[in-house]
Design goal:
alpha/beta; DHBP synthase; 8-stranded mixed sheet; 4-stranded parallel sheet; 10 helices; 14 strands; 19% strand; globular; binds threonylcarbamoyladenylate; binds magnesium ion
């Protein structure tokens, strides 16, 4: 299959037409690029699993065109409506009890559905033109680094999907926060741009076991092919080693990526996956990643680094 790279109003029309025809289209969002299909069309959703080589046990996030779908596809329990009014459109995904309208393939047969409304103007144009919810996981092959530009998507899925809609680089650069909303509290299933501090203003943050788990939360994920270790970078190990530094480079490394010279966590998050991808493509023996302070967005960045470092 030939993969077309398109942009602009014509690209938006082409993407919406493919979705309506039950085909796939890679789309920009403010977090990472998504691989979209019509969420109410189970065959179209099956194509996502096929193209990504993703196990069917790993459910999909449904991106809704407007808030009315919150009631149609889910039961907005607890503070779900408040969260939607505050953080949508934006980088927050809510896991809620599902309605019967959501196909089983989307939820992997679970009784919950993950919903989000993207703030990306190009994504919104496609959602409005299509007029239906769009199932979209990150547009990478299963277990690999999430794409934050159209070129990354091409690197991952060239020949496996018909179209990539280029909407420029993603502003957040890491995936949405996923929160399971329960009657009396919230469980953070994946840390992201909306922080625990922000969410705790709405309901108690619950921890410990729950019926709801993010099945895609494997220990190893976002994995570069080059071995990555989180460590103090001050003494470079022998070999051709790359450094993923937070603020400042260190001498003695073959390749260096600095996430944010000013120590700005937003900038660091937005550059993280592109920097990992570049180092991964640089023919290195290993990558050392410098630890990031774990407060605010730093929690989400360290979660991604630990998964990139995990080998099983
Ligand atoms: O920012 C994002 O969330 C991006 C953009 C494209 O929207 N999407 C994304 O999708 O990161 P994906 O599939 O790569 O990650 C979604 C995670 C998976 O780990 C999946 O297991 C979990 O969400 N998930 C989906 N539905 C769920 C549900 N009903 N209950 C618990 N976890 C769910
Ligand atoms: Mg993903």
């Amino acid at each position: 299959m030939k993969t077309l790279l398109v942009s602009g109003p014509d690209g938006v029309r082409q993407a919406a037409a493919l979705l309506a025809a039950g085909e796939l289209a890679a789309l920009p969002t403010e977090t990472v690029y998504g691989l979209g299909a019509s969420a109410l069309d189970p065959i179209a959703c099956a194509r996502i699993f096929e193209a990504k080589q993703r196990p069917l046990s790993d459910p999909l996030i449904v991106h809704i065109p407007d808030e009315s779908w919150l009631y149609r596809l889910a039961d907005p329990v607890g503070c779900a409506l408040d969260l939607a009014l505050t953080f949508w459109p934006g980088p927050l995904t809510m896991v809620l009890p599902r309605s019967a309208e959501v196909p089983d393939i989307v939820t992997s047969g679970q009784d919950t559905v993950a919903l989000r409304r993207s703030a990306h103007p190009v994504f919104q144009q496609v959602a409005t033109a299509f007029g239906q919810p769009i199932a979209a996981p990150s547009a990478n092959r299963f277990g690999r680094i999430s794409p934050t530009s159209a070129a990354h998507v091409l690197e991952e899925l060239d020949g496996a999907i018909p179209l990539i809609l280029d909407g420029g680089p993603c502003s957040h650069g890491i995936e949405s926060t996923i929160v399971a909303v329960e009657e009396h509290g919230l469980r953070i299933l994946r840390h992201g741009p909306i922080t625990e501090e922000q969410l705790s203003a709405f309901a108690p943050i619950l921890s410990g076991s729950s019926d709801i788990a993010a099945p895609g939360n494997l220990k190893s994920h976002y994995a570069p092919r080059t071995p990555l270790t989180i460590a103090d970078p001050s003494t470079p190990p022998p070999g051709r080693i790359g450094l993923l530094a937070f603020t400042a480079p260190v001498d003695g490394y073959a390749e260096v990526e600095c996430l944010s010279p000013d120590g700005d966590l937003r900038e660091a998050a937005s550059r993280l996956f592109a920097a990992m991808r570049r180092l991964d493509n640089a023919g290195l023996d290993a990558i050392i990643a410098e630890p990031i302070p774990e407060s605010g967005l730093g929690v989400a960045i360290m979660e991604r680094l630990r998964k990139a470092a995990a080998r099983e």
